[in-house]
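Bumping with the actual sequence this time:
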Amino acid sequence: MFENLSDKLDRAFKILKGQGQITEINVAETLKEVRKALLDADVNFKIAKQFTETVKEKALGQSVLTAISPGQLMIKVVHQELIQLMGGQKSDIQLGGNPTIILMVGLQGSGKTTFSGKLANYLKTKKGKNPLLVACDIYRPAAIEQLKVLGAQIGVDVFADPDSKDPISISKRAIQQARDNGNSVVIIDTAGRLAIDELMMNEIAAVKKAIQPHEILFVVDAMTGQDAVNTAKAFNEKLNFDGVVLTKLDGDTRGGAALSIRYVVDKPIKFVGTGEKMEALDVFYPERMADRILGMGDVLSLVEKAQEQFSEEEARKLQKKIAKNQFDFNDFLSQLQQIKKMGNLKDLVGMIPGVGKSLKDLDIKDDAFKGIEAIIFSMTPKERSTPDLINGSRRKRIAEGSGTNIQEVNKLIKQFEDTRKMMKMMGNKEQMAKMMRIMPQGGRR
């Protein structure tokens, strides 16, 4: 997401390279490119125009320090305005009431049902809640089955009545069941249509009036561009929803919807969906998204994803093994599997400042570790725990067993040995201190 916008903004800022100060003349061409980049990303024309005018007003007359260039100063101003455009700060989901009632609305195909499952999983695993999913899409039988499958997958109960065609009755009975069974949150997945129509709007409005939800989330497919903004406007006029959910942000989308919706309906983007897995749900942080758009990475999100997978206890055990030089292929494999759980590899790489741009054209597949895992699985338990045993004949057997070749096995063992050496060095404080003293001298030679 946002790759094209990032590239075009990068080119726009280069126009100011070598300029001594920001003036009306030299900023005009840059802002023309910024506006063009926003329009190409499917941002609404009025928003793009107002955005560049605000940036121009704030950038002009600012004195450029010797430490930073006009281009860097312009990036700073654009960064601040992008954050404001997307809402300024993150907006949490409201979890008041007993139970909390959350109503999911949106067009058919926007990803409401899948997101309902993701939200239930998020509230269960991250917030310690006991959610109940409610199948209230009375027109699409497959939606009921889909919700049941998702519920079973994440261990969350689903309330459904395939014989009823009354969404208000289904919702009310589900809420009563939640009270009886001690469910702290009720997530109601409602019916969508292929387009906005009066019947659909009246039906959802009637459900809202009958159950008085604590939170209404409008789910929209980010790949629908400007149509997403128009749909959001129509739903908001009828329902006055509380927040927006952008799905399919991992797809080939230009990202303009994310930059326009907040401005048009004046409602915060609360969550973004970034893949098919039930864990592929992120809280929306305007500042972090602005960082990623401008190629600054998103270290905080990367750290949070890592913390979710790596427990403190596991880290302590690993530290002890490293200190005793006992790091083996079992540990190596365990680390790879933890990284895989963190999400899409290309997205993870994109969160590292400066790395995302350099690797943007590289096709990083999610099965990138498949060959490495096959090699490790072809080792005997003894070889995994004692890597020094792996001689020439063993390497040949491992290559045949894993469907790889001897060069790939040698390469992996070399990578493993280098990793082990580095880890041992990092565990040795004296050696690390010595290395740190040498490094600056090496840089001056």
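The tokens above came from a reply further down the thread. The chain is about 60% helix and 10% strand.
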